[in-house]
Structures are given as C-alpha cells and as structure tokens.
Amino acid sequence: MTNLNPSFMKIIMRMLPFLLVSGFLLVSCAGNQASTVADNTKTEKKKKGKDFSSYSDLASILRRYAYAGVEVTGTGENASVRIRGMNSLMGDTRPLYVIDGAIVGRDYRQANAAINPADVASVRIVKDLAQLAKYGEQGRNGVIIIKTRSHLSK
User: Could you tell me the sign of the dihedral formed by the alpha carbons of 133, 60, 123, 98, in that order?
Assistant: First the structure.
C-alpha cells in the first residue's frame, strides 16, 4: 500500500461534501422528468399523429387529450387553465404560454388568440423544475409549450 500525500488528502476531504451533495442532486433530478406531450410530429414521445384542426380553441385541445395534472375550467375565451402541483405564494396559478419559442405570457385569452387550433403541431406541458429553470420566475406555475405547423415547416 502506498502512502498518500497529506495535502492531497486535505483537498479530497474538503471536496467530499460537495461531491456527495452534487451526486445526490444529480440522481434525484434525473428521475423526475414530468412533462406530457401531444404531437403531430415525429419528434415527441407521446400521443403522436393527433389532428387538432377540429378544435375551436386551446382549452378544447387541453381538455380532450387529458394532459396529466392539467385542469381546464370554462370554455372559449373564458377558460382557465391550471397545472396541478404548481402553487404560488403570490396567488397567481396561471401557467406560462410559449408559442413557437416566443413567450406569450400567462393570459389564456392572449395565448388562445395567438394560435389557430388547426395549425397546432404539438402541445407540451412542462412541470419539472429542472426544465422550468430556463423560464425563470415566469415559469413558476408550469409552462405550456405550443409548436405550430407553420413554425416547423420553416
């Protein structure tokens, strides 16, 4: 058995707590990929080949495909969407809407007016904290990512 340099051992002992915490976070985050997809393209994993053209609004699409953890109340412009498990101390529980990579905001009416349901290629619900991090404070209540056919064809 060889003798280890004492200064090397000190460095290892100082780094050990950091390595343990980093490893724990990596393992705990890796298994928590909470997102749901409905898709008309070949890129996403679930509910492929859906035709959204028969729906009149975004709420109809979200309600029909029963996204896990998504609560839709009301109809048309008066609909309200909430992602279960996402709570806010500020009292605002509305998710963030992202259409073709552009942040639309938390207003359902604005998001609904910005899309034509017939042009929707995929809808993805993001609830995982690691995935929400890129949206910062705006994504605290979950994110609904919508991709349109016209955007995919570019």
Answer: negative
Which whole-number Å values give the CA distances from 41 to 37, 74, 86, 136, in the listed order? 11, 29, 28, 28
> Which ranges of 5-86 does DSSP label H, i.e. alpha helix?
6-30, 58-64
- What pTM was computed for the model? 0.66
pLDDT digits (tens, 9 = 90+) for 100-119: 999 999 999 999 999 998 89
Give the helix/strand (H/E) hosting 70: strand 70-73
Query: What confidence tens digit (pLDDT) does each residue in 71-86 have?
Result: 898 888 889 888 876 5
Contact 65, 72 (CB under 8 A): no
The two tokens of residue 52 are 């959204």
Distance separating alpha carbons of residues 94 and 88, to the nearest angstrom: 9
